[in-house]
Structures are given as C-alpha cells and as structure tokens.
C-alpha cells in the first residue's frame, strides 16, 4: 500500500503539519499564562496511580485539578499526588486545587489559603455547594468568597451554574473566567440546558468560559466546544471508564474536533430540507407516466414491473 | 542529670503525660492532650509530617507554615489538611 492510498484526498492540498500549526496557534489565556490544551482533567477515582498518570498524558491536559483532605488519620494518599506532580512536570502542566466540600464562603476562603500553601499556586477552583442533592453551587456564598479571594491575590476559577446574572456578578468581583456546569457533578448527563449555555456564550463573548461538571461522553465535550466554549473540565467520565487512558484520548480528540468545528463555523439549522446537490433542471429523463405514478424503468411493461 | 522532655507527645489522657502539665485540645475533631507549651509546629512533627506536607488551621483559621511557632492553648481546635486527588 503506498502513501497515496492511505492519505485523505485533501491532505496533498495543504502543507505537512498544517493542522498542527493551526491548532498550535489556537491558544487561550488565564492571566499571563498561555494554554493550548482545552481539556482540563480531574484526578479523582482512578483505579491506580499509574492509570492516572497515563490518563493525564493521554489527555494532553495542561491543567489538572486536585483537592485537600482533612487529615483524619496519618494515612497517606497512596502516591497519587506524587504521580500527578510527575505527570505534570512531563508535559508542563499546572495544578488547579479545588475547595470541594465547602458550604460557606468562610470555609472556602480558609481552604483556599491552605491550598495555596500546599500546592504553591494561586490558581483556585472555587466550589461552594448550596444543595446536597444536586451539589449545586451556592451563588451568594460563591460571589462573597470570590470577591475576598481575588482581593487576596488568588486567580479564581469559579464553579458556578449557568445563571447569567450570577456569572456577571462573578466577573464583576474579578474572576478572570467562569466555569458553569453542564449538569450536576458526576451525573454524566451532558449539557442539560443548552439554551442557558448559548445565552452565556452570546452575552459574554469575551469571557473565557469552561464547561465544568456533568460531561459524561466525548460527544458532550464536542457539543460544548461546538457551542463556542473555550474548554471543558471533567473527571468521572474518564476515571470511571473501563479503560480510562483510552477514554482520556477519546475526550482529547472530541475537544479538538469540537473546537475545530467552532472555528470552522457550524452550519445553521434549517426547518426543512435544502438540496445539497447543485442540480439545474431535472437530473433524470422522466417518462410522462412518471408524473402520474413514478419512474418507468427501461424494458418494464408497466409502472408496476414484472414478476 | 536528666534532660527535660521538651518533645510534644500526644495522648488520650492528661495522666499519660504526667508529670508534665497537659492541656486539652481537639485534633481533627478528636479530644487529645498535649504538653503545656507544645507549639503547632511541634504537633505537626509529633504526628510524623514534614512541615510542608500539611496545611494547618487552629480554631477554623488558617495558620501559615511560618506561624506555627506559637504555643497551643487549652481548648484549641487543630485541623490538618493534606493534598489529595480531586475533580
């Protein structure tokens, strides 16, 4: 088999490396940090530290989330955090500590300070949960915490709902980006309210928007990117897969495909069919009988054919 | 000549620390006793942690690594946090 047989017809039309170069130029910013991967990965729930490390590598992620645990015993973390640090060093990625488990702004602020000290980063995924059943973010506590943390020099990534006004308030207090949910954490439901997400994208065109939580399949991630979101953050969909490393790769491709689709311009939906073949006039010679009952095949004695 | 025991031991009862004077604290929500004069840094070391391996809070207030030299007071609630995986 020669290369001509294995290459897609369009490949010869573009110089080698064209796609890579185009993607490389498609970066995004958090402050003065430039990122090219649009896939942020969580680190919880993997079957082993090695699988986690391999999944981080397969994801190509440049931002991975970590947490803090109250030290109820002297037990360690089975080496997960060391694996994470090693994996990140290998691909120049960053840690994004979270404030998971916090229910008030005060709790979140205290935990944020601990995270900054432990992980030596001012980046923070701010989580303040307001409902135990849905783990829905508490918008009031979230804004209070974000305001204080921004004042104290944190770069706050707020995990929020898709409510436009809450999002605007978070931007008002100095959050450099927003992380609205697609669906409740760990639910795998995908984007349950595309209308709200489209509204966010349209009303906040210059804001970095990351879909965080609820994504269960690569198609969900692609949908988020096709809607124009800047990145996605997910955890369980990868860590709970039968093959997490393979799934991390699948998400990577889906995110890239969705981003490319957004940049390329997804066609507008139409209510009715629109012919795609550019015909002029009739493509077939029709027997006059066809207009009464259908196409008459050559040699057929009648429109019904023979048995 | 006996060298005074200045190490911070953690005990379930005050008697276990005798003859040193002990104070009662809460450690990660559990009642514990430590010698009077024990600092937060001493406590972290007594638990077997390197200073940079944990973050600390006393009475629900973050205490940075550089502030752990203060002596604990009776009734203090101490919490330690460590890195862990997260989403």
From TrEMBL, chain A:
Any single Gene Ontology cellular-component annotation: cytoplasm
Domain of life from the UniProt record: Bacteria
Domain Thiazole synthase ThiG: 30-278
Alphabetical list of InterPro entries matching this protein: Aldolase_TIM (IPR013785), Thiazole_synthase_ThiG (IPR033983), ThiG (IPR008867)
GO BP annotations, alphabetical order: thiamine diphosphate biosynthetic process
SUPFAM superfamilies linked: ThiG-like
Residues annotated to bind 1-deoxy-D-xylulose 5-phosphate: 186, 213-214, 235-236
Record CDD domains: ThiG
First-listed, main subcellular location of the protein, grouped into a coarse class: cytoplasm
Subcellular location: Cytoplasm
Active site: 125 (schiff-base intermediate with dxp)
Pfam families in alphabetical order: ThiG
Recorded metabolic or biological pathway in which this protein acts: Cofactor biosynthesis; thiamine diphosphate biosynthesis
Catalytic activity reported: [ThiS sulfur-carrier protein]-C-terminal-Gly-aminoethanethioate + 2-iminoacetate + 1-deoxy-D-xylulose 5-phosphate = [ThiS sulfur-carrier protein]-C-terminal Gly-Gly + 2-[(2R,5Z)-2-carboxy-4-methylthiazol-5(2H)-ylidene]ethyl phosphate + 2 H2O + H(+)
Enzyme Commission number(s) from the entry: 2.8.1.10
Statement: the UniProt record of this protein carries the keyword Transmembrane helix: no
Keywords: Cytoplasm, Schiff base, Thiamine biosynthesis, Transferase
Family statement: Belongs to the ThiG family.
Function recorded in the entry: Catalyzes the rearrangement of 1-deoxy-D-xylulose 5-phosphate (DXP) to produce the thiazole phosphate moiety of thiamine. Sulfur is provided by the thiocarboxylate moiety of the carrier protein ThiS. In vitro, sulfur can be provided by H(2)S.
Name listed for the protein in its UniProt record: Thiazole synthase
Gene source species: Comamonas serinivorans
Taxonomic path: Bacteria, Pseudomonadati, Pseudomonadota, Betaproteobacteria, Burkholderiales
Gene: thiG
């Amino acid at each position: 088999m020669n290369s001509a047989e294995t290459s897609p017809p369009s490949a010869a039309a573009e110089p080698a490396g064209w796609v890579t170069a185009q993607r490389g130029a498609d970066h995004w910013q958090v402050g003065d940090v430039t990122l090219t991967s649009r896939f942020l990965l969580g680190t919880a729930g993997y079957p082993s530290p090695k699988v986690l490390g391999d999944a981080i590598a397969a994801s190509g992620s440049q931002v991975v989330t970590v947490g803090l645990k109250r030290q109820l015993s002297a037990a360690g973390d089975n080496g997960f955090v060391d694996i994470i640090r090693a994996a990140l060093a290998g691909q120049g990625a960053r840690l994004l500590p979270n404030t998971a488990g916090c229910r008030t702004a005060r709790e979140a602020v205290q935990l944020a300070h601990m995270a900054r000290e432990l992980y030596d980063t001012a980046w923070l995924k701010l989580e303040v949960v307001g409902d135990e059943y849905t783990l829905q973010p508490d918008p009031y506590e979230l804004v209070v915490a974000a305001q204080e943390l921004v004042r104290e020099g944190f770069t706050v990534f707020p995990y929020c709902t898709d409510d436009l006004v809450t999002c605007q308030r978070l931007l008002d207090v100095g959050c450099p980006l927003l992380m609205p949910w697609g669906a409740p954490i760990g639910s795998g439901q995908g984007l349950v309210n595309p209308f709200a997400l489209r509204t966010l994208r349209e009303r906040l065109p210059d804001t970095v928007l990351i879909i965080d939580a609820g994504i269960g399949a690569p198609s969900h991630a692609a949908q988020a990117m096709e809607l124009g979101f800047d990145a996605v953050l997910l955890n369980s969909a990868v860590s709970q897969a039968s093959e997490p490393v393979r799934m991390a790769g699948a998400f990577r491709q889906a995110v890239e495909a969705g981003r490319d689709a957004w940049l390329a311009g997804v066609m507008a939906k139409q209510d009715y069919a629109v012919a795609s073949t550019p015909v002029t006039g009739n493509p077939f010679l029709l027997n006059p009988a066809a207009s009464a009952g259908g196409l008459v095949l050559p040699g057929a004695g009648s429109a019904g054919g023979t048995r | 000549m006996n060298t005074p025991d200045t190490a911070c031991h953690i005990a379930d009862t005050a008697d276990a620390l005798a003859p040193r004077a002990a104070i009662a604290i809460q450690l990660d929500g559990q009642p514990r006793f430590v010698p009077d004069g024990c600092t937060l840094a001493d406590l972290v070391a007594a638990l077997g942690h390197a200073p940079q391996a944990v973050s600390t809070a006393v009475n629900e207030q973050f205490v940075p690594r550089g502030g752990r030299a203060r002596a604990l007071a009776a009734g203090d609630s101490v919490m330690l946090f460590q890195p862990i995986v997260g989403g």
